[in-house]
Structures are given as C-alpha cells and as structure tokens.
Hints:
The complex is a heterodimer of chains A (287) and B (280). With 287 residues, chain A is mainly α.
Amino acid sequence: MSNTTAVPFSAVNSAARPNAAEAPSAAWQQRWRQRLRAFLSRAASPLTIVLLWEIAARVGWLPERILAAPSQIAATFGTLVASGEMGSNVLVSLGRVLIGLSISLTLGTVLALIAGLSRRGEVIVDSPMQMVRTLPFVGLVPLFIVWFGIGDFTKVTLIAFATTFPMYLTLYSGIRSIDAKLIEAGRLFGLGQLGLIWHVILPGALPSFLLGLRYALGISWLSLVIVEQINATAGLGYLINNARDFMRTDIIVVCLMAYSLLGLLTDLLVRSIEHVALAWRPSFIKD
Amino acid sequence: MANAKFSAVAAELIAASANTIAVRLRQLSKRFGNNTILDAIDLDIRPGEFVALLGRSGSGKTTLLRALAGLDQISSGQLQVPAARSAVFQEPRLMPWKRAWRNVVMGLHIANAREHARQALTEVGLAHRENAWPATLSGGEAQRVALARALVREPQLLLLDEPFAALDALTRIRMHQLILSLWRVHQPAVLLVTHDVDEAILLADRVLVLEHGRIAADLKIDQQRPRSADNHRFQQVRTQLLQLLGVELESETKADIARPSLHLVPPSPAASFNLSNFSI
C-alpha cells in the first residue's frame, strides 16, 4: 500500500482514463456483434430459400406462370407503387375493412354491454348470438349475394358479420369476469350504477376489448381476401383477379404480401394502443 | 360530505340518543334458506368505541360485518347504523386501473379531490406513492391505501374485515400502531373482525365472541394502551378467549399463565358464566 502513494496522482489518472472510456464502447461493440450474429443465424434459412427460388426461376426449373422470381416480384412491386395502382387499390381494400370493422365494433360492443350488464339482456342477446356465431360466415356468401347483390355493400356486410362475434364474445366474457369484490367495493365507496360502469366495469373489461379488437382485425383481413374474390372492380382482390387472368404470378404474390403487411401494421397499432391504455397492468409497468 | 347524511331511521335514532349510540342491533337475524347465520343479535356500539369481533370460521362474523356495511340484507330485526361508514377488507380491493390517489377519492364528489387524497395518504405515510399503480404497491402499502380510502370519507363507523390477515408479522405490528393512532385522531366507532385473539386484545376496548350466530361473550378490556402481550393480565384474557373459541392450551402453558378457576371452565358453546363485567 505504501508504494502506491509514491505514484503521482496524474499518472494513475491518465492510466485509468483510457480504460474507463474503452470498456463501455468495447462492451457495446461486443453486444452489437452478438446481435448481428443472432440475426444472421436466424435469417440464414429464409435467405437460402429465397436464393434457391431465384436460381430455380432463372435456370427455368420454376416457370413464371407457376411462380415468378423474387427479383421480378420486387420489381413489379416497385412499378405498382410508382404507378399509384398499388396505393389506390390498397386504400379501397383498407376502406372496406375499416367500414366493416367500425360497424362490428359498435354492434359487438353494444350487444356485449347489454348482455354483460344485465341478466335480462343476457337472456335476450346471448343465446341468439351463440347460435349465429356457429354459422361459418364463408358459407353465407351465396345468401348475402342473393340478398344484397355483388357490390361493395355485400363485402362490407360480410366483414362486419364475421368480426362482430369475436368483439362480442371477448368483451362479454371480459365484463362477466370482473372481480365481484371490486364491484362490491365500488358500490360501498359511493359509486352509483353509471359510476360502476364507468369506473369499474369498462376499465376492467378494456383488456378483453382490445384482445377482441385484435382478433377482429385478424379475421377482417381474412374475410377481406375472401369477399374480394366476388366481382371486385377495385381493391387488392381486383388486382389479384386481373393478374390471374393474365397469369401474372408476380402481381398475385405482391398483393398477398400487401395483405399480410396491412395485417401486421394494424396489429402493431392495437399493440401500441394497449401500451398506453393498459399502462396499469403489471406486464406494462416498467419501474 | 357523506357523513352529514344519515338514513332516515338512523338519523332519528342518533338525534334521540344524543351521541351515545353509533350502532344499535335488536334481534337481528340473518338466514340463508334453513341456515340461521345470525340468531337474534342485540348489540350497541358507542361512538368512538373500538370493538373486536372474534369467532371461529363460520360463526357469522363476516356476515354481521356485511350486514353493518349494508352489503347484505338482514332477514329480520332492527339495524341502525350511521350513514357515514366505511370498510377495509382482507384484500385491498383497489381498482388496478386507478392510481393510488384516485383510488382514495373514488366515488367522492368533492372539490380538491387530489388535495384530500394527498392528505389521507400522508396520514398513512404514503404521500410519496400517490401516483403509483396498485400493482406496484406491496401488500402493506396497498392495505394502507385502502385505509386512506376508508378514512377520507370520515366514517362514524369503520368496519375492518380481517384487514391484517394477509400481511407479514412485522407489517402487521406497524399496521396495528397505525390503526390505533388514526382511530385516536378520527374517533370513529370501529368493528374489527379478526381470527387473531392477540390482535383483538391489543387493539380493542371491547371483545365480542360470536358463536353459532349469537354473541357468546362480551369482554371489556380496560388496560391502558399501548398494551403488551407479555403482561400477566393480557395472558389471562387471552386464555379465557381461547377457551371460549374452543382452543385448549397445553397444560404447562396453562399452569404458567392461567388462574386455577379457569381450568374448570369447559369450552361451552353457551358460555354460561357472565363475562360482560370482566375487566383487566
């Protein structure tokens, strides 16, 4: 110990400083290298598949009318976006989903509140809903065409029909599974019927509502794909139908990717809503 | 505020008895089908009196508390309670989606709600947690928020349904001290339902033992607070209460702390001897 006192303070300091500055940056680089390696090892297999697909298309093992090459799909995507064809048709499809969803959100929420908040409402609403929900909505397409024709009204109605049930079922069970002790406490501490709904039941059912919304979104994209096969004059389904007639597999693949991207984006949107609206949940609490 | 309002019956009663009675039960019964849970109970609690209610599981303690809280209807008899009453349960029952201070003033329509909440949280030592989500509170903290929520309503009757049962031993001791100091400041009548004989003797002015839906014993505890469990008289009362609850202590413990006469008393459900004037 007595030796160290002989060392000038500045010398100790200058020796220590570069080390201190280097250590975190080295650790940082290390972490990034690890992440890159993990990413590459996960991406290796899909990248290989795409590469093999490209080679197969280039040497002619995979004819274009079966499946276009990845490079060609990318190029087609670029042209469709540049010409504005992609954007306008995506907007039409998005519009159908949004209108259908807003109808089913309203309907599903209102019905779930009626059934969830009163016994009489449950008797009136729940049994018919449970009966109708077992109908496969794809099977209803012919009936809806007979009733409403082949226009946009049928498409939107079918999307609304398909998505009402996940909204209704999740929200209804969410309302019914609220802890009765919390409702009792709310009543004891002075909440009236409306106060209970506003301060206890609705916030308590919000996680279920958002879960139902995510289910409904997933189903809405699925039903969009199905209803857009019916005589579409605009929208992604229209692009696909046209491409089928000309055997343009590249356009079909681009449209399929657009469907899945839209699905991903809307799911992301609901997740970010969850982060804000459910900040009180233990899983979202940071500190 | 809420404590200014009384139900019509209670208002009449309080006016008539001029602050000598907070709770009055006459022949109060509660039945579920053929099961009689509470059997013709007579009970008076004075304003500011701290009453503990002991009893085995299924003796009707919680049913009585719920009847006093107005959470359950009674089957027959008379029940007169102040309108300003409040409760703390075994679970905190905080709304997980409301921050601590909003839980405290939930259901109150008052100006400066936040100021009231802060004051109440300061009283229970949680001013620094006013913005916390209930999920981030420890068991003791959550129970203190529940206590603040009860006190901010300035109750004339505070109902405590085993509020310390789920807490660890150290937290429980702190909660005992807290509840006594808050009781001294606010002076509500308190009915504490508990399993814990020591807790009842430590805190209460009066200990009731409920058995088969009837009040089997009514003991006055006159000992000065703070009380300590290593006191000889404390142990006497403890043994007596345990016997009433059907617990026989082991012989060496009994010889050590109990008077010989108490050995002869069988753990009779009827509690034939009169304990109402017993005091220490």
